[in-house]
Amino acid sequence: MVSVGDARDPVDRSRTVGEVGERRLIAELTRSSRALDVTHRPPDVVIGSGDDAAVIDSGGPTVISTDTAVAGRHFRFDWSDPRTVGARAVVQSAADIAAMGGRVTGTVVSIACPPDTTVGTVLDMNAGILDATHRLGGRVLGGDLVGADEVVLTVTTVGALDGATPIVVGGARPGDLLAVTGSALGASAAGLALLLDAQRRGTDELLTEFSGLVAAHRLPAPDLTQGPAAARAGAHAMTDISDGLVEELITMAAASGVQLSVAGDRIPVSDDMRSAAERLGVDLRDWTVTGGEDHELLGSFAAGSVPPGWTTIGEVHDGTAVWVDGRTVQDLQGWQSFGS
Amino acid sequence: MVSVGDARDPVDRSRTVGEVGERRLIAELTRSSRALDVTHRPPDVVIGSGDDAAVIDSGGPTVISTDTAVAGRHFRFDWSDPRTVGARAVVQSAADIAAMGGRVTGTVVSIACPPDTTVGTVLDMNAGILDATHRLGGRVLGGDLVGADEVVLTVTTVGALDGATPIVVGGARPGDLLAVTGSALGASAAGLALLLDAQRRGTDELLTEFSGLVAAHRLPAPDLTQGPAAARAGAHAMTDISDGLVEELITMAAASGVQLSVAGDRIPVSDDMRSAAERLGVDLRDWTVTGGEDHELLGSFAAGSVPPGWTTIGEVHDGTAVWVDGRTVQDLQGWQSFGS
User: Fold this and answer.
1) Does the domain at residues B17-160 carry the CATH identifier 3.30.1330.10?
2) Does the structural domain B177-328 have CATH classification 3.90.650.10?
3) Residue of A nearest to B16 (CA)
4) Model ipTM?
């Protein structure tokens, strides 16, 4: 990471990163971060951003995960404003902490961007990163800022277990119940489908009608406090749904050495999703079963232990397959970065 | 981060990332990582890679820092092989942990690369990352793999303090001595100058003669155990030299509210550096004072407390300026990513 000296006057937001230079921009990022951070200084943070490294102490093990989002591949600036792009990068990284049963304590962030990126774009991405981290109860601990040909955001999130046992993905046991968080699994995929449809047809009509689904794609808002809640409830296995439900089921089944069976009509969906699927003429299960990036949690619990706020969608059996509505789904594929 | 299922047969190294797909390549990365990792499993690691997130417990605070390296900007594949590129990304991130007085416990890694990157290139970068992390006493805890237009490596390193107080950059006190680690400060800059000269003149002659300097540019090898050693010696301030000595002096002076004075001829240099400077007709101080990326450590110690292996190069006084050989250096600039 970079150390920064004193911050100077605010930088003109319309200037480019290349014009302003790395040192000046980092000073401005630090200044704006501190301004946004005054009311929020969790006791875990010993030393925050502005030194070579940060020091954090939650009195126990540290949970850590990293996730990268690339412009044009994982997000589009013509579909999302920079603040939302930054916030989304935090949510997708933080969901991995929740999936271990962890509480988010902090993030470190790398922003790579072309020199002709405006200062305003970088500051807005950073504001989104700060805001999302704060909403999760953590603090932005530091970062790096480098030049690149395209915008690449890497968010590494750390968390605390507060005495809980970490919940691995491979712990599902025959007899368990499978449950998910959230009230609309596949809402992000529905939003993406609406955006692609609007682009194809050249009209924003449906985007206005289903603005909630579009918002769910731009910035998923899973309740990540359900991760620690599941750990307290004794969850046997957990993961976040980042590549579509079926991909996570395949991963959990393989890692646990079990058979998973899900009833498609038990997967929580919203009325908006049903309406949108009808309007677009698509099968709702394209979104609920194979759609990705909601970052809701999938857990495996002993019968009677499913926590409040979770919806039971299936069961765990002896075996190694994954079934949805009585059909195996080994050949179904979720979203993949390098897809052909 | 991504969860992975069972690894399958080794993947053909000459195929591309796009052909093989993200899931298959991650399985292969996990497989090869485990193969390289059997002899090395530090007690800090509770859960390693292969789950949503890793869990690490060193029984105290966690030090964390992130650094990003971009192909064509921070490294060049025509100058460094993929393994060296991976190792270098670890060293530059890990140096920040050492600069706080920390011991490296683990890394998490994001590899972004174009779909036409060969599997072999990715595996070699990963092998370099693993090897460098292991050499530092840590373990690769997890990562992310995504598509991008160019190779972007982000390494986040975590470390432990083992009871030591973290050493900030802003703690230098009047009366302190300034000291650095290593025997050849600016060797990386010398190696870069030699590579640029060889490119300009179209001959590798000097690269062979000064292969040690070229190697120092490709992969700096600071002794990062000197970070915890400095902490045990009661260092008042510390940082790693990543942007050139003068930039770090400016940062330390500003953060500490002190005046720093360095004698250029006390900065450790190698005979190779003297010879190379003569052959290229450049001032040695272009490398020692303004050259960057050695990742050696700069510390401020009470008189009599400079640890073995460090070289005293100057003193700390009341004031706010930085002096080298009696001249202020506020206008000297080190390496900057977004430089015009």
Assistant:
1) yes
2) yes
3) A338
4) 0.91
